[in-house]
Amino acid sequence: MTPAVILALCSEESKVKMTCHSCRAQMVKAGFYGRNRVQRWKCQQCGKRLSEPPQRPFNSDVRLPSEKVAMILHCLVEGNSVRSTSRLCDVEKRTVLTILKLAGEHCERFMERTLRSVPVRDLQLDECWSYVFKKEGHKHPAEAKETSIGDQYTYIAFERNSKLVVAWHLGRRDRQNTEQFIEKVRSATTDQRFDVSTDAFIPYNDAINIRLWDRANHSIVIKVYDKPEEGRERYSPGNFVTVEKSVQHGMPDLERACTSHVERKNGSLRQWCRRLTRLTYAFSKKKENLRAALALHFWYYNFARIHSALRVTPAMESHLTDHVWRIEELFSHS
């Protein structure tokens, strides 16, 4: 063997050596233990034995097996509520919430690092309504300025061709949160020109014109419906009449200007994220839990769920990864 190979082998050997906690001597391997084949080590000086510390999910103090954690997350991303997940997985509700928070924080950090300078062509922006603890009309006068309860909106930036959720943001439907959302869109996209389609929400105009002036061609799409017929249910929509398109900034292609794809994504979000399902008791009681559930959903949608129209995941279509991710891979990915 060449000196380089010998040096590499020695360095690899040094990585797996362990030191005795008592006499500080080097330990040697002493077989495996248990069905998970945990590596055992023995000190040849004092005779003490120990096992390698297990790799815990998300590098945290989670005592559940990795299979159980993966089962909990699979139930959540497939539209189960916290209580139904606790029954299916035979764990406490608090355990499900703890796993959800850890996974949500991990997914949010992962997507912030990964979704950078993504090339896009047609970007569609929209908001999905939800609420935390109580609806806005049910708040007491003392809670009027409390932003952690009441109506919450999930801002979504959806790429029409790759079906990728480029950026998302949770907050009130106001100018400040809109500007924060557009800033996330800027960080996630390249400086090449692309088209942006939105509805007539006024804060989009200034936020896009100021923060995406060098790359975005902004068009506004307004869908017109007539009034529903008398006697129809409250949630029945009116009949579609026409769509109005206008240029707000740059030179967008009005033939391709559309918000239907991101509105369809809102439907998928309500189907797969139980907290956004209408007319149920599964709404979020805390804003941090809703934020964690959204982060987990968007990560799973981008990296782990095969899109039926693409036959691959949106992240693979955008060349951000070369394979379909498994939830178990998220545990060890720092």
Number of strands: 10
User: In the CATH scheme, what's the topology name of the largest domain?
Assistant: Nucleotidyltransferase, domain 5
Q: What characterizes the major β-sheet?
A: 6 strands, mixed
- Low-pLDDT runs of 5+ residues are 1-15
Overall average residue pLDDT: 88
Return the string of H and E elements.
HEEEEHHHEEEHEHEEHHHH
Radius of gyration: 25 Å
Shape: elongated
- Percentage of residues in DSSP E strands: 15-25%
Secondary-structure class: alpha+beta
CATH architecture of the largest domain: 2-Layer Sandwich
Short structural summary:
The protein is of the alpha+beta class and 334 residues long. It contains ten helices and ten strands. A hairpin with a 5-residue loop joins strand 3 (38-43) and strand 4.
Describe the structure.
The protein is of the alpha+beta class and 334 residues long. It folds into 2 domains: 17-54, N-terminal domain of TfIIb (Single Sheet); 66-139 and 146-332, Nucleotidyltransferase, domain 5, CATH 3.30.420. The chain has helices spanning 3-16, 66-77, 82-89, 93-114, 175-188, 203-211, 260-272, 287-304, 314-317, 327-332, and strands at residues 18-19, 26-33, 38-43, 49-51, 122-132, 150-159, 165-171, 194-198, 216-225, 240-249. The protein has a 6-stranded mixed β-sheet with strand order 7-6-5-8-9-10, sandwiched between helices. A 4-stranded antiparallel β-sheet has the order 1-2-3-4, with no helix packed on it. A hairpin with a 5-residue loop joins β6 (150-159) and β7 (165-171). The radius of gyration is 25 Å and the shape is elongated. The model is unreliable at 1-15 (pLDDT under 50).
